[in-house]
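> forwarded from #structure-qc
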């Protein structure tokens, strides 16, 4: 009995010692640093929103931004205007003859290349655009209003200048195209509208109003420009007559199509 009790007490002590055994410190630090294993989720995957990479359309400029842009342009032109007025002799003696020589060369080249056919070159088309813009400016009652920046009255004046110059350039062509059943040239390409915009900038916003003044005062420059504009209108008339003859139209229709030019 005493031996059994001793064996029982020894077994209890051994089990108590086993329960009091602890994990060594290095192993415990490894267990603490080990991340728990992720449990797979049974819920349906959520939709991930990917930012769109499509190009966004540019925000249109409002009237205030347009006016501010025009005011910045006016300040830049005024600065260059003062610089041009400071060196008038240099402009007259160097720039004007060079521009005149280039203009004569381009007109002669276009006349030799396209001859008296029905096709106009880009340069001759731009020359006619400048003549249209200048003709409209000559007809304005108030020629002192050079800049139209800010204010309702000046904005209306600018709109009138743009629309009037546009009509001076394309009104006759649209009338002839409607008469012969063809699409007006202004609707075939944006280049013609860009030429009108460039002509407006050149003849209304050039530093010192140099371009308009030279076109008004220089008889040689006006002669070359008018020669180019006449060549442009002659080719337009030839084109209208060719279309009418091909379609079987009579002489009266051909004459009516030439009159607007």
């Amino acid at each position: 009995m005493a031996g059994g009790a001793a064996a029982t007490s020894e077994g209890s002590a051994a089990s108590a010692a086993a329960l009091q055994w602890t994990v060594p410190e290095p192993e415990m630090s490894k267990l603490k640093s080990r991340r728990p294993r992720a449990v797979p989720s049974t819920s349906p995957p959520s939709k991930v929103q990917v930012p769109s990479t499509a190009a966004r359309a540019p925000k249109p400029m409002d009237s205030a931004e347009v006016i501010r842009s025009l005011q910045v342009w006016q300040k830049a032109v005024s600065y260059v205007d003062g610089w041009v007025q400071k060196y008038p002799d240099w402009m007259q003696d160097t720039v004007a003859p060079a521009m005149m020589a280039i203009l004569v060369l381009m007109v002669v080249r276009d006349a030799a290349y396209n001859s008296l056919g029905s096709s106009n070159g880009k340069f001759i088309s731009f020359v006619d655009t400048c003549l249209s813009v200048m003709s409209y400016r000559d007809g304005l009652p108030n020629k002192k209003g050079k800049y139209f920046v800010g204010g309702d009255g000046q904005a209306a004046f600018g709109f009138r200048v743009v629309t009037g110059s546009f009509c001076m350039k394309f009104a006759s062509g649209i009338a002839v195209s409607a008469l012969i059943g063809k699409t007006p040239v202004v609707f075939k390409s944006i280049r013609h509208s860009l030429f009108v915009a460039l002509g407006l900038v050149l003849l209304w916003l050039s530093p010192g109003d140099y371009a308009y003044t030279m076109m008004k005062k220089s008889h040689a420059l006006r002669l070359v420009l008018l020669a180019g504009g006449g060549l442009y209108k002659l080719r337009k008339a030839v084109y209208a007559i060719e279309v009418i003859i091909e379609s079987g139209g009579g002489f009266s229709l051909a004459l009516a199509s030439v009159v607007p030019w």
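QC bot note: The two ends are 140 Å apart (CA to CA). Residues 78-258 form one domain.
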